[in-house]
Amino acid sequence: MTRRIVDFHAHAFPDAIAAKAANNLQDYYGLPLAADGHFSYLLDSMQENHITKMVIHATATKPSQVQNINRFIASLTNEDIYGFGTLHYAFSDLDGELARMAEMGLRGVKLHPIFQGFAIDDATMFPIYERLEGRWPILMHVGDVNSDASSPRRLARVLDRFPGLTVIAAHLGGYQEWDEAMDCLIGRDIYIDTSSSVKLLPPERSLSIIRAHGADKVLFGTDYPLSLHKEELACLDKLGLTEDEMTQILWKNAYRLLNIPE
Question: Which stretches of the chain drop beneath a pLDDT of 70?
Fold first, then answer.
């Protein structure tokens, strides 16, 4: 029987800017691209690797982009592709936009402190957290050796202040800051995802983080266009996870988080 797989962390861009957006990611992170950023390439990979469902994301770097990006992400969704919308701390109508996002069928919010220009625990973000707490899951980019704005410790402070938030801390809790993530995030009542982590870390290191956190709170993700399904699945297969742990990471946790019937 073919296993079910949910890619919980992939990026989508309009065709007109896809190559530029992908190159910006490559330039910032210093990681080679797996593809050119076009959504069609991601769909091809989804089909070729028998991906059951996918969650796509984009972030607004300016408040004027919020509504257009949310409409774009919503336009790509269907019964197998789910979308997380975007918000910006300087956007003037948070309540109205959340209502529109719900009407469009979006299922959560993606936030990227570095690209959106905020620190995770900035007070300017509190109105957003207050509205999302207990209502909308957040996929948060966490970790960056070039900036303290997205540090795991900052997210830990937010979790203390807003304990009802449902957070997916991307990149095993902190890209390039996995030691700090172990100190202050791993084991807490949040999700983490595998994107841009399991292919960079030694298998035993990834395995130790996953088991310290609990496989029931880990989600599979590619971080497309930085990686694709075949490569990420091969890395996951090398970790030595049990069949039950793999099942939870590949789809069960995502189904539970998104309320998808099994």
Answer: 1-2
